[in-house]
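Exercise 7. Predict the structure of Sec translocon accessory complex subunit YajC from Leptospira neocaledonica.
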Amino acid sequence: MLSNFQNLFLLAQADPAGAQGGGFNTLLFIPILFIILYFIVIRPQRNEEKKRKTMIESLQKGDVVITSSGIHGKVVEFKDNNESVVLAIAKDTNVTFNSSTILRKKEKEKEA
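Solution. The predicted structure, encoded as tokens:
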């Protein structure tokens, strides 16, 4: 049976390089993780934001849009250098929204 001192002696003789062999792997792991996150999360969000921005810039009077709060309305006019949009949401009811609240343009329904 080994005493406590003999156990400590055997542990001290163990290969120290094996215990520290993760430094380079850790340094390599961080950039790889960032690259994976970029292609999975950041890049698709940027593409969606670009599409949304071009959609907002291409809005014209008469387009039917949906705001981020779920309000459907028809574009009546633009204010403040296209920073604001006036939407007709009911008969004789116009509401002004920030252009950034426009979520999407509703496609015109095909008539049968």
